[in-house]
Amino acid sequence: MSGLGASGAAAVPALQPLVIGLASANPGVFPTLARQFVHKWASALSGEFRNVESDTPLFRFTLQLSGLYMRGFEEIYFLLVPPFLQTPLSSLPALLEQTDASHPFIVLCPHRQQYASLSIGSFHGRVIIFSPEIISEILSSNGSRSREAFRRPIRNQIDAIRLHPFNTTQPATGEMFFGRQEELNMLQTNEAAGFLITGPSRTGKTSLVQQYLQICRRGKNPHTRNVFYLDLQVCAHLDEDRIARVFAMGIRDVPGITDRIQFSELRSFLCSIVHKVKEPLEIIIDEADAVCHTDLLLTVAEFAVSSGNRVIVVGRGAVRQFWRKHQASSFGRLHEIRFQALSADEAWQLFLRPIEALGLRVETPEETKQTLLRYTSRNPHLVQGCAQLVVRQASTTNTCTITPSMLAPTDESFRDFSLLRTQLEDVHSDLARFAAVEVLKHSQEGLQVPTLIRAALCERGLACTMTEIYDACDDLVVNWLLGWEHANYAPPRWDLFKTAQHHRDYLDGVQRECLERLKARGR
């Protein structure tokens, strides 16, 4: 058990009368007191009940909590141990087998002698025992104080490596979804027939639509529509008819119909779904770049715009290029939401709140914040990556203090060649791609201003107008191959620049190919 995150010794609180009552209750009184306890416990932690069960000697209940910033503790199974049981945890193995292994069990033991005799043995890490004193401290507090009292025994029994909620491979959900409130409000309140959400990989586009989807499923969306989410990444190499089948089965799988549907029948199929459910549809299409070689987006947008339905299309550079190419169509009239970095405060809170929840203390907050912003460019993916590095270092060195130097990532930890390649492939023209490579190679010399980019391209034999250069720079900003700070162009994202420095041969090859194609077209 690591000492990371453990707080200093707290004053032992006087036991709550309810805890004292539970510790001496007989079988006839215990269920009544237990139900009183459950309601008071949920109120102290601002939790939401899922169920209460008392079909075994152990009184069980499930609580959904938010704001803990601990992985796996969004929903928790509690066992309230009666004082009259001789072997209180004998049924625990069977209970653990019946429940989702991702959810922890917290055993609440209000009886001191019983608590001292309990042993979780092989269940260490999934089962946590709370003493009478901890239980009383939580019941005696409220808000942030009760949450901190709740976290303390968890931190003392589980290492921070296993507890931290930072994840760079999955969409951010729940309390780890930070910022994007303006975009979320727009999806909820704007009556537009459709939106196009564009931005580079790993900037939070999927996290945004997943958050919106959860709001809709909880019935808190003002739009009365049936909402469907489709990830079309698997469609990249499929023809129109097979894409139509994947799409139709994502809306409603009707054996014998959706598995045989032709692309030409897709719109009539969507109209039939509206007729059956008697409500408009809202279709969220994620990873839409995969279908830009077909007319699917045009068909779905036309269906949405002309019949009171709605479509939200999520993608990167290929989608944006497709959208610009079809400005005169219904798809071209979708309202664009261009993803930018988080605000400085949002990026800092994404880092700080979970760090503090783990019991870690930031030694010099302002210096640490500025270091974080410099390394991450306020990108949520990189913020979480830096936070993971910090937690690992703190756990390895068994320290609770975070210093700015701990945020300095190694080159290896942030190099991602596949991401660099994707960003360059998403750029919409050879001219812009050529310019992007120039910027990546020479941004340390200040090559990020449009006039300097134009001069550099002219030296390479590419005469360009300033309109073409600004158009190219706009495309680079969308793909974070150029930054945008305070209405001025800025260096490219830090991790992409670092990766580029270790793949100069690849960049040279990209430029040669672009230059050949541009000269073949008479540039």
TrEMBL record:
UniProt-listed Gene3D superfamilies: P-loop containing nucleotide triphosphate hydrolases (3.40.50.300)
SUPFAM superfamilies for the chain: P-loop containing nucleoside triphosphate hydrolases (SSF52540)
InterPro entries: P-loop_NTPase
Record protein name field: Archaeal ATPase
